[in-house]
Design brief:
285 residues, alpha/beta, Rossmann fold, ProC C-terminal domain-like fold, 2 domains, eight-stranded mixed sheet, 11 helices, globular
């Protein structure tokens, strides 16, 4: 790493939603110049679009990316990991750092299948704005310097937070899925406001957007915690208290049910990934 940027080559296999978010965030942050990024994708049109938007960005095959990259983000679907790893296996030397961005593929599985250094980084759409968290789980082969350099890289686009393996799903529910969950709830609030009152959708959306931005800033600067903010707004006998009573009654179990549902899906994904890696004949020994 060097101040104001990096000298290593960052590779991305897969330029879907999260891959593109990471690529564009690193470029926008100024940490990684386009010429230090190499990308491959099943559909070449996506890589051509990225290259047109970011002069100097390099595109190639999966093998080209794996060969050139010092740090390699694997941004494919989880059940494509085995196929991609088999394809690039001969490029994954012990000095390279392989990063999974999916919750269902663990670092121990990847360490058992490759000789390189491994970590998992779960990004969030909030990283598009160079903010929000990125979840990090380190493999056993990273030294102190490796860990520090990865955290420095991620700090350019996020607040990297190290998590334990057993907390992967719930942490991802909050950080990665959370923006969609709460966007859904906010839209429900807007839709109900339009349905129940004379306010227009445009007006309600603008008010909601400004409220959310302001709320985020209050929490960011540490002026309030969630409980103290509620206490400050909710005066005895006031309208806010009536609304909170309704929310408490109507949403009492909604997040328990949400977490149970996401974990059931996660358990299925974990089993599918285990089956994918069950055949060890091509694995690293």
């Amino acid at each position: 790493m060097i101040a104001g940027g990096i000298q290593m080559i960052i590779g991305f296999i897969g330029a879907g939603s999260m891959g593109t978010i990471l690529i564009e965030a690193f470029i926008e942050s100024g940490t990684v110049p386009p010429a230090h990024i190499i990308v491959s994708n099943r559909s070449p049109e996506k890589t051509r679009t990225l290259a047109r938007k970011n002069a100097g960005l390099v595109t190639g095959t999966n093998i080209d990316v794996a060969h050139a990259a010092d740090v390699l983000f694997l941004c494919t679907k989880p059940l494509d990991y085995r196929t991609v790893l088999d394809e690039i296996q001969h490029c994954l030397t012990p000095d390279k750092l392989l990063l999974s961005i999916t919750s269902s593929v663990g670092v121990q599985q990847l360490e058992a299948y490759t000789p390189c250094k491994v970590a998992r980084v779960i990004p969030s759409i909030t990283n598009t704005a160079l903010s929000g968290a990125a979840l990090v789980t380190f493999g056993s082969r990273l030294c102190v310097t490796d860990r520090s350099e990865l955290l420095t890289l991620l700090s350019a686009i996020s607040v990297p937070i190290e998590i334990e393996e057993q907390n992967t799903r719930i942490s991802s529910d909050i950080v990665s899925c959370g923006p969609a969950f709460f966007s859904f709830l906010l839209q429900r609030f807007i839709d109900s406001a339009v349905s129940e009152t004379a306010i227009t959708e445009e007006q309600a959306t603008r008010l909601m957007t400004e409220m959310v931005v302001g709320l985020g800033r209050l929490l960011e600067d540490g002026r309030f915690s969630l409980p103290t903010l509620q206490a400050r707004v909710c005066v005895p006998g006031g309208v806010t208290g009536i609304g909170l009573h309704v929310l408490d009654r109507e949403t009492q179990h909604v997040f328990e049910h949400l977490i149970q549902a996401t974990h059931r899906k996660f358990d299925v994904d974990i089993l599918e990934v285990k089956e994918m890696f069950a055949d060890k004949k091509n694995s690293f020994h």
